[in-house]
């Protein structure tokens, strides 16, 4: 049985992690966002903000980590797995920040495909920033448009999740898979 890989994406502060946690509470298989992990590991190695200081290295680490998640999802013996962000997210952010990247990034997104993409729109009422999320809401809006266009460029048709309570958003996603 092939495990269907379902990405939940969206700009910063749109509620992705909250939905992933809710799905997990409901017994669903989920793979969590790895960017904070990458950032914290770099801080342990003495680089305060890897994304700002070495954006290409940060993005390479994200691409590798998300590719590892992709392979991990293939090894699961379940119908589907929910993944907090996918490979194209890396390119969307790099393009937003006008960071050049090698063709490997593009071919990786072409070669490793997801089964369904859910995108959470920017939502000012729930947006908060913290130590790892330093974008303003206006920047989150712009990042969101890059996410939409990047996924569409790779042939996906992202399903926009309505701005509802977490339980209702989660139910919306489950009803669409």
TrEMBL record:
Ranges where the NadR/Ttd14 AAA domain occurs: 5-169
Pfam family, one: AAA_28
SUPFAM superfamilies reported in the protein's UniProt record: P-loop containing nucleoside triphosphate hydrolases
Annotated source species: Gramella jeungdoensis
Protein name as annotated: ATP-binding protein
UniProt keyword list: ATP-binding, Nucleotide-binding
Gene Ontology molecular function terms on file: ATP binding
InterPro entries in UniProt: NadR/Ttd14_AAA_dom (IPR038727), P-loop_NTPase (IPR027417)
